[in-house]
Structure formats: C-alpha cells, structure tokens
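Example 3.2
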Amino acid sequence: MKIYTVILATCIFIGAASGANDYDPNDFAAEVIEYVQGTGIPNDLFTSQPFNNPNMALGRPTLITTGDGWPIPPNQHVPVVPVYPPFRSFELVTIGKGGRLTVKFNHPVVNDRNNPYGIDFIIYGNASQKMIGGQYWTNGNPEQTTVSGSVSAEPGIVAVSQDGNNWYYFSNGPYADSFAPTASYEWDDVNNVWGDELDPTRPVDPNLTAASLNGKTVAQIIEMYNGSAGGTGFDIGTLGLDWIQYVRIEDKPGSSATTDIDAIADVSCCGDYKHPYPAGDLNEDCRVDFFDFAILAQDWLAGTGWDDLATLADGWLQCSWKCQ
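Structure, written as tokens:
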C-alpha cells in the first residue's frame, strides 16, 4: 500500500460527469474462491480498518475515492486519476507478503480474436504515475499536472485456470498492480469538467508504457488511454489457452511491495459471452455482408448450401454491438 503525494487549481466536482458505461457485474470477477492473508497488511489511514476484505476485488474498479487529509479534505469526493489511485480499505484488498487471492468469473473469459490488442482480461490495482517533482494533486485541473516517465507499482504474480486446480502462470509478467494506472472519467477541456466514464472493460494499447508518458499532463494521459479506464492487460493466448474462469494473484517473492487489487475485468468485444455474432456471420467479424457471401459461394460446391444461405439471408447486413 503506497502513501503517495498527491497539483494545484480549484476543486472540480464529479457531479459534472455527464455519461456512464452500462455497468454489468458479470463483466468482472464475481466470486472469491480463496484469500490467504499475507503479512504486512496496512490499515486504512482514517478508519484503521485493515485492507483484508477480499470482496473488494469483486465488481468494477473504483470511480471516486476520497480526499487524503493533506491537500484534499478527507470528506471530499475525488475522481480516480492516474496520479491519484484508490487508496481506501473499502476500495482495495491487499495480498500481503506470502499471500494470495483467487477469484472466479461466472462465465468463461475467452481468448477472443476480436478483443482489442489481443487482451482478454484486465487487473486494476492502485499503481500511480509519478508526478514531476514538487507537484501535488489537489483535485484540480488535470491539464496542469505533469508526470514523469515512471510508475509507482506493487507487482503481484498472476496465474489463471479453467478448473481452479490446474494453474498457468504469467511468470515473467505482466504483473498485477502495475501499469497502466486507473482513470475513471474523460476530461472535458472545453468546459473544464469531468465528462463520461471511461470503459473498464477496454484495455489500453500495450504499446503505451510508463516511459512514454514522460512530460505528459494527466489530461493527455486520459486522452491517450483512448476510452479505456487503464489497468494491466493479460492475453491468455500467450499461455496456450482458449479460455479461463479463475484468476489468482500471488505475492511476488523478493519484492518488498504488497500488491493491492481493486477489480478484475473481462474485456468486452463483439463475439464475446454477451455479444454473440449475428446469424449468418460466417467469418465472425461481427458483420453480415458480402465477405460472408463470398465464403458461402466458395464452399457452395462442397455441399454447405442452403442452410448457410438461409441463415445469411436472414441476418443480411446485421451488425453485432460496436462493430460500426
């Protein structure tokens, strides 16, 4: 658990946020299977409650946290931004030294070829992008806060499983509670207010790194996230798996960090568990169009024939979810 310095400017209220993603609890880890509390679990700065409630890893990542009691009064609502992550015991669970946390989704998380950047699930912690020296976050204008090229992270080792018994490890990373730090809202630079919620089921571009943010403002970072709420993305295809349903985070041996977990999200895309391909989408690109007709024509003499034609015709020019 980090104690981070927190820039200047006047308070900007979250009430200005004008839009929201449709929250579906099924998009996130839904059940705690095991929590082995490690040592070194800190207590909440204000309540003295230890960060040992594993249910804090379920559901969506934190949108709004509280003031820190230094530049920001503790009763003030504060949007989560890459330099000011969630930090309260009712937002996070800490793994602790020698500890581990195992959670389960209520559906298979699939290695879907349509997932953005090939990322299949995202883990949110309380990593934060370090600010350039002398700056503090005071719940102000994110255009006035500049960051360095490094991130304050508390990496934890991640493993996945289909059955809860056989585990496959991301032994060499990526790690939980590392880049990219969470962001909760877009920034409206015309009206200088917080805008729509960012999407916690959309990964950031893996080519984006902490170093590539050096000299950027918090507002620019949010824009570079391209609609994503951040988090660390994982591709289960690199482990040779088609799907998983369990995720485990373990303390990283040899590290002094105590990993914190806020949420674990299934990446949303067309063709996933709740956005099925439209009928007649023979090439599974989420559109029923002449590309599908070409596949049908190519296979016509092979005898696939009338059933495919009827299905294609019935779904002609249909489109699944955000395929436009």
